Amino acid sequence: MVNSNQKVELVIITGMSGAGKTVAVQSLEDLGYFCVDNLPPALLPKFLELMKENKDNKKLAVVMDLRGREFFDALYETLSQFTSDEDIREHVLFLDANTETLVKRYKESRRSHPLAPDGLPLDGIKQEREILDELKGRAQTIIDTSELSARGLREKILHTYKEEKQHVFSVQFVSFGFKHGIPIDADLVFDVRFLPNPHYVESMRELTGLNQEVSSYVMKWKETRQFLRKLTDLLDYMLPHYQREGKSQLVIGIGCTGGQHRSVALAQKLSDIVQGQYTSHVYHRDIDKRKEKQKYD
Asked: With contact defined as beta carbons under 8 Å apart, do 208 and 287 qualify?
């Protein structure tokens, strides 16, 4: 629980169109910021009042750019108010890139510049620099993304705004049954249907992998122990690379036939194994499917 007297951490993300504001706001969202894209500056004071009353989250990131250029006068006026507000800690993040890079990005995306919808991107970029010049001078952090990949920008954002000991990479294990379909959000999927099935043991048929009897049965086999050793070695190798790549969450699906026994027991076990090194969660997608079927039969 966040202390209600804690200051509101406000990050205003702005800068040149095409410089990476989308990557920046997504990175801050992964750090636990409440994020709003293209918020009119006139609404910012009211939004901040609501954040002051919020006991669970005092971190707000807002994107303000030339899609709302008619509001920039209001933004300058609003920013000047923050200096006297002791309940708000404000930080302006300005993203920039050289003109050549911005033109190249517009050509690659085949999008028009917001200030030159019917003209050349170069014309819009020149106008935008003039409009944003004053705001750039107000920024506490300026990041030039000309030579940065999306991953590189994300790393800079995380390094700048990450709180000490804050976890920004987590691993979620999802147990499921193949007969109900593979989870569409899984990054990796492992099939454990080759392992002995507790379903065929009468005393365990109506139980799940959360039951100690079922879990012990699944874990006692040589095949299971060998599978866990090999998969653990694989994860020890892969997870640091996924984390270094900039992923905020890795979803690993563990599937058996019905999603009741083997996959549940193994997802729980794997979550326990990686918990000491990473933030780990486990979700049993199909564990109640049998009860639901019986309810409607």
From this structure: yes
Written as six digits, the tokens of 65 are 């750019």
Question: Whole-angstrom Cα distance, residue 51 to residue 80?
Answer: 19
Q: What's the pLDDT band for 91 if we cut at 50, 70, 90?
A: confident
Cβ neighbors of 122 (< 8 A, separation 6 or more) are 99, 103
Top-ranked range on mean pLDDT: pick from 27-36, 52-61, 111-120: 27-36
Contact present, 128 and 66 (Cβ < 8 Å): yes
Largest CA distance in the chain: 76
Q: Which helix (H) or strand (E) holds 215?
A: helix 212-219
Q: How far apart are CA 232 and CA 297, in angstroms?
A: 40
Q: How far is CA 222 from the centre of its chain?
A: 38
Q: Which residues pair with 76 in a beta bridge?
A: none
Joined together, the tokens standing for residue 96 give: 């920039």
Q: Summarize pLDDT for 240-264 with one digit per residue, the tens.
A: 998 877 677 899 999 999 999 999 9
Cβ partners under 8 Å of residue 295, min gap 6: none
CB 232 within 8 A of CB 169: no
